[in-house]
Amino acid sequence: MANSKRDVHVVFLGPTGCGKSRLCNFLLEDDKAFKVNASFQSVTKGIESKWKSINTNNELIAFKFIDTQGLADTTMTNAEVVSTVAAAVKQDIQYVNYFVIILRAGRLTDENRNALEDIIKAFKLSDDERKKHAFLLLSHCECSNQQLRDQYEKECLADRTLKKLLIVRSNRAINFQCIGLPQPSEVNEWMYEGIMKWMNVQRKGLLEYLSKPIEGIRPTNDGFFENICTIL
Ligand SMILES: Nc1nc2c(ncn2[C@@H]2O[C@H](COP(=O)(O)OP(=O)(O)OP(=O)(O)O)[C@@H](O)[C@H]2O)c(=O)[nH]1
Ligand SMILES: [Mg+2]
């Protein structure tokens, strides 16, 4: 039995098709929770959210995962998407514990860079205090070995946009992770076992990070939420 209970609200943001809905479904352990599709236009519209409770270290954590509409889409400007998403998030929850920013590993296109700059600006994520609420994930890394994942991390730390989000300790980005979440039905049968195993390792690592209360945060304007979250 858990001794205490805590709500953790996590908002997933990123360019269209980067894998936000796929990641939410994976964390929810429900492939049908949110619609996932390879499409040029944003599949998710506005926001969608779902709860999942997880018992860790004598604490029951009720996660609210908030999937959002992708930026850099062909039908709406980034400014329109950001304001639609921000308004919907504010209506849905009173505070955000973590903003998970997802990007497909590989070269950063101008469109995706602009989308990230707009996200960082809209939610003030380059601010030293707010950065503690940001987590950068590179998706589509299921075939990348440790050396390549380390190289991606270095490239992100050197990138003029991505480095604004990252918290660095001993030359490592602590709020960063590479993930690979192909649909199990599409995985090459020779690689299936290994990829499935790695997926479970990733789920555990990410949920552990998101479960940790954020330390050193100044109380927010009303003090009601103490030091674990931020007001939008
Ligand atoms: N191989 C691989 N495919 C992935 C990964 N993440 C997502 N995909 C696939 O990429 C496509 C787009 O994923 P979605 O989760 O729908 O992307 P999204 O960010 O929610 O897109 P929008 O809702 O349009 O903004 C789907 O076909 C997913 O199965 C990954 O890490 N590896
Ligand atoms: Mg989606």
TrEMBL record:
<feature type="domain" description="AIG1-type G">
    <location>
        <begin position="9"/>
        <end position="177"/>
    </location>
</feature>
<keyword id="KW-0342">GTP-binding</keyword>
<comment type="similarity">
    <text>Belongs to the TRAFAC class TrmE-Era-EngA-EngB-Septin-like GTPase superfamily. AIG1/Toc34/Toc159-like paraseptin GTPase family. IAN subfamily.</text>
</comment>
<dbReference type="InterPro" id="IPR027417">
    <property type="entry name" value="P-loop_NTPase"/>
</dbReference>
<dbReference type="Pfam" id="PF04548">
    <property type="entry name" value="AIG1"/>
</dbReference>
<dbReference type="InterPro" id="IPR045058">
    <property type="entry name" value="GIMA/IAN/Toc"/>
</dbReference>
<dbReference type="GO" id="GO:0005525">
    <property type="term" value="F:GTP binding"/>
</dbReference>
<keyword id="KW-0547">Nucleotide-binding</keyword>
<dbReference type="InterPro" id="IPR006703">
    <property type="entry name" value="G_AIG1"/>
</dbReference>
<protein>
    <recommendedName>
        <fullName>AIG1-type G domain-containing protein</fullName>
    </recommendedName>
</protein>
